[in-house]
Amino acid sequence: MSTLTGSRDDAETKVVRVMTLALGAVGLVYFALLLPGIVGQYEFIATWWTWPTLLLIFGLPVVTAGRAWRSSLRSLRLLAAIVAFGFLGAMLTLKLAATGGHLEMNLGTPWILGITTLSAIAAAIAWGPRFAWPYMALIMVLLWGNRVFLAPQPIFDLASKDTLVAVFMAVLFLSLALVSVSTAQALDLAAASAISEETRAATARAEARERRRAEALIHDAVLSTLLMAGRTSASTTGAAAIQARRALQQLEQLRDLPPTEKYLSSLAFVWLLQGTATDIAPQAHFSYSIETKLQIPSEVASAISEASAEALRNSTRHAGLHANRTMHVTVTAYCATVDIIDDGVGFDPATIPPSRLGIAISIAARVNNMVGGRARIVSQVDEGTRVFLEWNKR
C-alpha cells in the first residue's frame, strides 16, 4: 500500500533539494566537458591548487546530490556555501598556482573560468539575494582579472568579451535559482497562513460544539433532574437521587482541570469523537477503548476531532456508496489514537497534488504540527483507506 505520512518538508526544502541535484548534475557535465582542458593545463598549474579545486567544485556537489533527499535544509545550505567559497578561493589563488604566474595562449582559457554558473547555483542555494548577488559580482571581477593577468600579454578586449558572456550566464542561472527559492518561501508562508486560519476556525468550531454539548447536558441532565425532584414522591425518591448523581458526574466532565489550562477527560474525548462520527458519517461503526484516565488538552482534542471529521467527510465523498466505515478510539495512560478505516475505492497518495488542502492541511498538517502529534494515511486503489491519528503526551 502507498502511504502518506504528512511530511514536514516544506516547499523551500524540496526546491533546495532539487537545486542540489541540479548542482551535482551540472558539475558532472562540466567536468566531462572540461576534462581535456584540465588534463592539458595540469602540468602548468600547481597540484596544491588543482586537486582541492577539483574535489570542492566537482566532487562535493556530486556527493551532496547523492544525499540531497536525506539531508536537512541547513546541511544542504552549508555544503553549498563550502562549494561557493571553494570556488572563490580558487579564483583568488589561480595566478599564484600558475607556473610563472601565467598560462600560454595555446593552452586556452583557464578551465575554471568557464564554470561560473556552477558557483551561481551554489550561491543561490547557500544564501539569499542579499549575499548571492555581491558574491557573483566579486566572481565576475576575479574572472576578468584572471583572464587579463594570466595571459603572457594583456588581452583587455578578449577578457571583457569573455566576462560579459559569463555575466549573462551567471545572471540567468542565479536569477532562476533565486526566483525558485523565493516562490517556494512564498508558498510556505501561504501554507502556514492557511494552517493558522484553519486552526483558528477549528478552535471556534470546537468551542461552539462544546457549548452545544454543555447546553444539551444542562437540558437533559440538570433540568430533568430538577423536574424529577419537583415531582418526587415516596416511590420515586431513589430514582431522583440516582439521576442527580448522574447529572453531577456529567457536570464534572466540564470542569477545567487544572484552572490554568482546559483539558478533556478520556470519556469526554471519546464523546467528542463519537459526536463527530455521528454528525459526519452516522452509518460508521464507532467503538472505543479506555485503558486508563488521561487528561487531553482541549486544543489537541479539537485538532484530532477536526482531522477525524475531514477524514470521514473524504470517505463519505470519495469511498463509494457501498463502502463500510469504522472508527475506533483508544486512550491509554500516555496516548490517544483514532483509527478510521473504510473498504472503499481508495486512492494513490502519490497522485494527490499539494493544492488539495483536505489531506495536506486539514488532516496531516493539523495533527503533525501538534507537539506529540502524528498522522498516517495509508491507501491503495480498490483496497480502501486508513487514517491513523495519534497524540502522545510524552
Protein model, in words:
With 394 residues, the protein is of the alpha+beta class. The chain folds into 2 domains: 10-193, no CATH class; 257-392, Histidine kinase-like ATPase, C-terminal domain (Heat Shock Protein 90, 2-Layer Sandwich), CATH 3.30.565.10. Helix content is 63%, strand content 11%. The chain contains 10 helices and 8 strands. The protein has helices at 11-41, 47-66, 73-97, 116-126, 129-149, 156-230, 237-252, 266-280, 298-318, 357-368, and strands spanning 2-4, 263-264, 285-290, 296-297, 325-331, 335-342, 373-380, 384-392. The strands form 2 sheets. Strands 1-7-8-6-5-3 form a 6-stranded mixed sheet, covered by helices on one side. α1 (11-41) packs antiparallel against α4 (116-126) and α6 (156-230) crosses α9 (298-318). It is elongated and about 115 Å long.
Inertia-based shape = elongated
Q: Helix tally?
A: 10
Structural class: alpha+beta
* Spatial gap, N to C terminus: 30 Å
Number of domains: 2
Q: How many strand elements?
A: 8
In percent terms, what proportion of residues is strand?
5-15%
Tell me the series of helices and strands, N- to C-terminal: EHHHHHHHEHEEHEEHEE
Main beta-sheet annotation: 6 strands, mixed
Main sheet strand line-up: 1-7-8-6-5-3
Low-pLDDT segments: 1-8, 256-261
Helical content (DSSP H or I, runs of 4+)? 55-70%
Task: Calculate the mean pLDDT score and round it.
Answer: 81
CA-atom Rg in angstroms: 33 Å
